[in-house]
Specification:
Strand content of chain A: 25-35%
Largest interface: A-C, 64 and 61 residues
CATH class of one domain in chain A: Mainly Beta
Shape of chain A: flat
Number of helices of chain A: 4
CATH topology of one domain in chain A: UDP N-Acetylglucosamine Acyltransferase, domain 1
Helix content of chain A: 10-25%
Radius of gyration of chain A: 25 Å
Structural class of chain A: alpha/beta
CATH architecture of one domain in chain A: 3 Solenoid
Number of strands of chain A: 38
Oligomer: homotrimer
CATH superfamily of one domain in chain A: Hexapeptide repeat proteins
Distance between the termini of chain A: 58 Å
Chain lengths: 347, 347, 347
């Protein structure tokens, strides 16, 4: 399948020249030839463009009916007859940029729904879109090109840089965002952190949660994900870091730039992650830890100690992947051996 | 306790005949005898109906004060004196249907709140209910009997079949739903998938996420659960599959019919589950895997390989339950033995 | 850093006497001396107050520039010259109360936004605040001082005691709450539980979910957390229990008072937790279990058996911490020994 025609009709057809320019790619085809859209390699038709994702898709390549395929220079020989090669050193990136010609990201066009509740002291760029039932608090600042979708709540004083997108039902308070920040549906940014202290009467009193959330340029926060504001410092997410659905960041957490935090990850309060850290799904990271640049944490791991830069960790408690794999193999071998012994006894 | 009287007053009393007809069950009582409602076996009173859930509740049966109890034919001899037996081969189902006589599922009655934002191009059946502050996008189609609760957002082009219920704060976009689909409060359907590629400048560019979400008849999606739309194909959930709160389905995931996905499960992109698969709480399933029909995945498991039909898996990484149990027992034995050795040394 | 000045400007300066009175603490300073706010020990300035969290912060204490520090009597000797000691037997509590003088919790002031949808039969105390697009259902009761934020949905018949706060996008139905209950953004209380039974035709029919949710005084429910209502009894959360973001409580769950449930925990249906139980992040607790008073469950544990009062559990499946630690050490030792053996073979 290509783009779903009901939801993503696209702006086509587009001439090859425009697509190559957007993709910074080369092809030896007719610059005026027009394509209708992008599609997966196995389903693309003669007027569609696909791409070769990894070497293991080479078989699909030989069978493709795509009109053109984006791939690396050395892979062009694998193209079936009549299929145009679009050459790029970064095929996925080139393909994404070609797709964006057909399906450009929407930008705010200055549409304000009459049923939005906008505080008169908010500063909203005239180009920003504000959807039905959106709420913009006092002294909030909304940059050019922002899209505030239906039901989004932007709290008092919140700053959104240019071209931010707040999807339906997301709420953001006590936060300052750079350019191009995206909050997906139901994301919660700026909540009170989970910090309290007992009283002699057996109640809890909340410790001061008076910090903000700072989101760098192009940070994305997944659907229903939560980022708590800082306690006595700020919670910080660095430039271009992407956080998936249902993830949780506690108060005072600091993520560097370019991190990838997959769905349902939990990062406890005051943990500090460097740049380009990859955290796979359902991982838990304990509070106050330091995770070095470019570390990678495998799915469902439980990190309870600091992690060195570049380390590959796995397991709960998390260990270096090699160590964990050895442990897994050891247990497997011993359990199998135990079974053998038991079988002998049975005889 | 029975139904909470403040929130579920119920439509009673009801005559036995009507209840038996609804339950497709038999009883030798007075067809005109009236019951006031349903209740748990241990708390039901003389005008209430309970049911015998499993054999381990037989003790409670002997002590029940219920006026009638739904149970299997062979269990009728266990009834205390004066308690009417309602005989069914499927007592839980019969009980559910009796309860539905007292507490019928609401259906849309054509009520539209004045403060809903409905695009003029949306096609809404006259019988559908639209609550306060609900948003219905352009060209959306809402079937007969649907209930769109307060604050629900139905995006442009979305199709809802007959008798769907969208609870408060749920949002759905880029999706086509069959009949009787239920989205619980805060569910997020149709979000952009988590797919992107790095640039040479150390940023990420989103890969095309141009597919839809297809929900079969009677699919239910739990509170604050998330289902991302497909990338270049669709995300699909088969008929009657039930997804619990806070679960996450990535882009291109395909679930068969009758699957059960318990709370906080994460299913990564492009994983394919067959029919009648049961996935217990907090399980993670890696991307691109195939899980066979009627497989069962134990709580907190991490599935990293394909699973055969009918298999019972457990652990992280997931293994056949028997293998995993043996490993657990082996480690337990070795740790205990090690302790013994240490104790000897201490002497 | 102190409180973020944009979002938490605070009500200062405040005289020492007022702060000591609020904190029930002692200091030998000038009662008229004024402080501007609270801050972390490492960042506080001469007109700010910090506190000594634990013994491991003593080094920071010697370097602090804070005007005053809250600490225990025996720690006063560690104060740097010129820094005022504020003496309390419970420094964290005293600090929280001092912070609350600068940043008092907001209370409802009787502000009702014109764009709220309030059923005429709802009973709302005149002092309650109702934000834009909030929805209050029929016969709901809202106590004095409550704050119902933008987009909150309070269902029919719901009761909120005095001084409850419902944050944006939270929804609550079928629930009765005591005083001072807080639902953070996007929390879902009162959803239908996940209970159903198969039909001969391969569909599922929902079992009756007719109970309520009872939240005791001062219960707090985190952002996007979910609490399902009971099936044929109630789901109950005891006084002062705190539930963090994205946690899940199934139907009929009962939590005692003073429990702490950290982010992303899942508690399955009908589990019963005593008082003062601590459940760390991402734990799963199976259905129908009993967890004794003051038990502590370590992060990511999977509890599949009843837990004794006061027990410390860890692992999946959960074991007493000492047993689990021994197992971890045993596997580590065997894996290392196996490696040694393999190395010998390689020679």
């Amino acid at each position: 399948m290509a783009a779903h025609p009901r939801f993503f009709p696209g702006q086509g057809p587009q001439p090859l020249a425009a697509l190559l320019a957007a993709a910074e790619a080369q092809a030896e085809g007719d610059a005026e030839r027009r394509f209708s859209g992008v599609a997966a390699l196995a389903e693309a038709g003669p007027d569609e463009i696909a791409y070769l994702e990894t070497a293991k898709h080479r078989e699909a390549l030989s069978a493709t009916r795509a009109g053109a395929v984006v791939l690396r220079e050395g892979e062009a020989a694998l193209l079936p007859p009549g299929c145009l090669g679009i050459i790029s050193a970064m095929p996925a990136l080139a393909f994404a940029r070609i797709a964006a010609v057909f399906h450009p990201s929407p930008r705010g066009m200055g549409q304000r729904h009459a049923a939005a509740a906008i505080d008169p002291s908010a500063q909203i760029d005239p180009s920003a879109d504000i959807g039905p039932f959106a709420v913009i608090g006092a002294a909030a600042e909304i940059g050019a090109g922002c899209i505030i979708h239906a039901h989004a709540v932007v709290g008092p004083g919140v700053v959104l840089g240019e071209n931010c997108t707040i999807h339906p039902h997301a709420s953001i308070s006590n936060a300052i965002c750079g350019r191009g920040v995206v909050l997906h549906a139901g994301a919660r940014v700026g909540n009170e952190g989970f910090g309290f202290t007992p009283t002699p009467q057996g109640r809890f009193v909340t410790m001061p949660q008076l910090g903000a959330v700072l989101l760098g340029d192009e940070v994305e926060v997944g659907a229903n994900a939560c980022i708590d504001r800082g306690a006595l410092e700020d919670t910080v997410v660095g430039r271009a870091t992407r956080i998936d659905n249902l993830a949780q960041l506690g108060h005072n957490v600091r993520l560097g730039q370019g991190c990838v935090v997959v769905a349902q990850v939990g990062i406890s309060g005051s943990a500090v992650l460097g740049d380009w850290v990859q955290v796979a799904g359902q991982v838990g990271i304990a509070g106050h830890l330091h995770i070095g640049d470019r570390a990678r944490i495998g799915a469902q791991s439980g990190v309870i100690r600091d992690v060195e830069p570049g380390a590959d960790m796995l397991g709960s408690p998390a260990l270096p992947v090699r160590v964990k794999m050895r442990e897994i193999a050891t247990v497997q071998r011993l359990a199998a051996a135990g079974l053998k012994t038991m079988s002998k006894k049975d005889n």
